[in-house]
Design goal:
By secondary structure, the protein is of the alpha/beta class. It has helices at residues 40-48, 90-101, 111-115, 131-144, 161-176, 212-219, 224-233, 241-247, and strands spanning 2-11, 14-24, 29-33, 55-60, 63-64, 75-78, 149-153, 180-184, 197-202, 205-211. It starts with a strand and ends with a helix. The chain binds adenosine-5'-diphosphate and magnesium ion. Magnesium ion (MG) binds next to helix 1.
Length: 251
């Protein structure tokens, strides 16, 4: 569904993405994991066309994205930091998006608007919202037009525990409908029951992209947090695999 071929992105001297290749299919939940500054957001923005890679190609549903934008219709995106016009009210924002898209009402997914009771805040200007409420608005927008691909950049950051559970439940539901979901989070326990594949980035390089079951077998850990901790520390319960994982460049 999404194929990335040899993407490199430099910010002056810094290589934010270094020759990344990967492909993601329908029904997969790819957890993008890596330390701060490892290139997760840059990779996401490259897929969305918000960052232009210096080299490499990205394909969406087998079509080469060459500065095009129509494909984005199929992607729901929740940014790490949602930015909205300060004086626009929540209700106006949703109405504006619905008017622009002009989709039949029965295809619109208002579930998160209801769950988060955003209707009761429709008169509030965006500039007055708390970080958590802003996140709820961003989440509701990502799912609004029932897209076949969801790209969620730290979706649970700043949400209270209950709201975070609501969102995780929603993501799980969409996963079960066979959508492709790309997600980043530093709260690895949030990813445990969602993830089908882990893509691990470090300093712009992809260290590995593997099935969660394989990662569990390789590390001898069931919990994603523990498995990743082993990878990050370079620990190796079996005595042989981590160095292999970390040195293996996925071509
Ligand atoms: P992550 O999301 O994994 O924390 P990012 O993709 O945001 O990492 O950033 C990767 C690296 O690229 C960081 O060192 C960051 O400072 C740098 N970077 C990201 N965006 C820009 C930009 N617009 N200009 C300059 N440097 C940037
Ligand atoms: Mg980021």
């Amino acid at each position: 569904m999404i194929r990335i071929e040899n993407i490199t992105k430099r910010f002056k001297k810094l290589k934010a993405l270094d020759n990344i290749s990967a492909s993601f299919e329908k029904g997969q939940v790819i957890s993008l994991i890596g330390p701060n500054g490892s290139g997760k957001t840059t990779l996401i923005k490259s897929i969305l066309g918000m960052v232009k890679p210096d080299s490499g190609k990205i394909f969406f549903k087998e079509e080469y994205i060459n500065g095009g934008f129509i494909y984005r219709k199929d992607i729901g995106y929740m940014p790490q930091i949602g930015r909205y016009p300060d004086n626009m009210k929540i209700g106006q924002l949703f109405n504006m998006l619905k008017n622009i898209r002009n989709e039949p009402p029965e295809t619109i997914d208002n579930e998160l608007i209801k769950e988060y009771d955003l209707c009761s805040m429709y008169e509030k200007p965006m500039r007055t919202l708390s970080g958590g409420t802003r996140q709820k608005v961003s989440a509701a927008i990502a799912f609004l037009f029932n897209p076949s691909v969801l790209i969620l950049d730290e979706p649970t950051a700043g949400l209270d525990p209950l709201s975070s559970e609501v969102l995780k439940e929603k993501i799980l539901q969409e996963k079960n409908k066979g959508k492709l979901i790309l997600i980043t989070s530093h709260i690895l326990s949030d990813l445990d029951e969602l993830t089908t594949h882990v893509m691990y980035l470090q300093e712009g390089k992809m260290q590995f992209l593997k099935n969660i079951e394989t990662l569990r077998e390789d590390t001898g850990e069931i919990k994603l947090a523990k498995a990743i901790a082993r990878v990050m520390k370079g620990e190796d319960p079996a005595g042989n695999f981590i160095s292999e994982v970390l040195t293996k460049k996925t071509k």
